[in-house]
Amino acid sequence: MAHIRRVSTLFDCTDVCPEGYDPLGSIDPVFQTNSWGFFENPYYTTDSATMDDILFQYDITICQSQANFGVKASRPQAWAKNIVAVGGVNHRDTLTTTDDSWLHPDPPECVLQLPASHGPAEDNRIKPDFTHFFDEVSTTDNGNTFTDCFGGTSAATPITCGYFGLFYQMWSAGHFGNFVSPACDPQIMNCVFEHRPHMTTAKAMMINTSRMYVFAGQFPPNPDLTRDKQGWGLADVGKLYVHGVGDKFKLIIDETDLVDAVQTAAYLITVDAGAYELKVTLVYADPMGDPKATRAFINDLNLALRSPSGALYWGNTGLLDANWSQPGGAPNSIAVDTVENIFVQSPGAGQWKVGVSTKGINEDGHVETPALDADFALVVSVDFDCNGNLSPDSFDIAHFPTTWPDSNNNGVPDACESP
Q1: In whole angstroms, what is the distance from residue 242 CA to residue 40 CA?
Q2: What is the CA radius of gyration of the chain?
């Protein structure tokens, strides 16, 4: 199992994170969830920078609650570049997500009076990274009692981080075709820790398979589920699992490749005819920023995608306005995000070229070598919609297994299999 460490004091994790990398230690955590933090503000502060430094050095996934003020005032740790920041959405105690709302406080006896704090960051980086349920969460309470009225981003964050724990367990089982050492005995060793991917890869895998809320425009009449409220949506381990079963991940780079001032990384991805979506996610760990600077970034990595017909997509272009990327634009034209996505609906068949480049390495991002360079996580997936319901097959199998069963466990609904 993935090990969980609860931190109850209002300090940063410098007293906890190193234990995960102490060969004589006994904790070996792969993730940490924080529903605490320092005083809320809208700025990248020294506390934000400290958290970035911790994550850059210790390479552990840390989920951080945004806050509950309905404005950009958030815990400074949530503004860190390398953190997994989590906002909140009211799910109204229903199974469907069609009535979910960031703004609507329902019911009043359970939720906080204000909605979740939101982004973007002061330098226009996309924050939060994810969202989850803000209201009517059932859980244990103080004194060995029970409540069905827990809420706030303090509820949304551990839900999200629990999903990260499930991801790490899948990874440790080799579910995504990743190498797993046969010498690791789970009876005597923490194999989840031994096999763990880099934190950037965990974040990229979860974002690539997230369940995004539909929205249109940055400032629609109802600014309810815009990118600055939902981030990249709800973590979806069901879809993640089916992606692994159905071999829908076409590329997973776990910080094995490097870029520098002259060297770029390029990959060819074959997309078969009839694909419903092509999703490309880049995440890189960035050294701590300067709180006095206008932008928090240090290194600037860029994601690009070229279609078989020659159309060029840049990371995050169009994704502030909707869930599908738009061709054109420019690299990092608005902000320098350490998370960049390109999501293409109905991609054409053929060879697509994915590129990772840099406009500048200002500080070593890959300290394992003497060169001035940077590493990154890159995830590419392709999925289909065999039943034509405008939903990817992996989502249908994961969330509607009775309607769309997959009895042979190959990532394709039985109804779509050839007789």
Answers
A1: 38
A2: 21
The Cα–Cα gap between 101 and 157 comes to: 17
Q: How far apart are CA 133 and CA 87, in angstroms?
A: 9
Contact present, 285 and 200 (Cβ < 8 Å): yes
The one-letter amino acid code at 199 reads M
Spatial contact of 229 and 118, defined as CB atoms under 8 Å apart? yes
Q: Going by C-beta distance under 8 Å and a sequence separation of 6 or more, which residues neighbour residue 162?
A: 33
Residue with tokens 């190193």: 18
CA angle, corner 253, sides to 252 and 255, nearest 5?
150
Give the span between the Cα atoms of 406 and 419, in whole angstroms.
14
Q: Which domains does the chain have, with CATH numbers?
A: 13-201 (3.40.50.200), 247-392 (2.60.120.380), 393-419 (no CATH)
Q: What is the pLDDT along the chain (419 residues), one digit of tens a residue?
A: 333 333 333 344 544 454 444 544 567 889 999 998 889 999 999 999 999 999 999 999 999 999 999 999 999 999 999 999 999 998 888 888 888 999 876 566 675 678 999 999 999 999 999 999 988 888 887 777 888 878 889 999 999 999 999 999 999 999 999 999 999 988 888 899 999 999 999 999 999 999 999 998 887 776 789 999 999 999 999 999 999 999 999 999 999 999 998 889 999 999 999 999 999 999 999 999 999 999 999 999 999 999 999 999 999 999 999 999 999 887 865 678 999 999 999 999 999 999 999 988 999 999 999 999 999 999 999 999 999 999 999 999 999 999 999 999 999 999 998 76
CA separation for the pair 293, 93 (Å, rounded): 43
Nearest to 130 by CA among 240, 281, 239, 231: 231
CA 198 to chain centre: 13
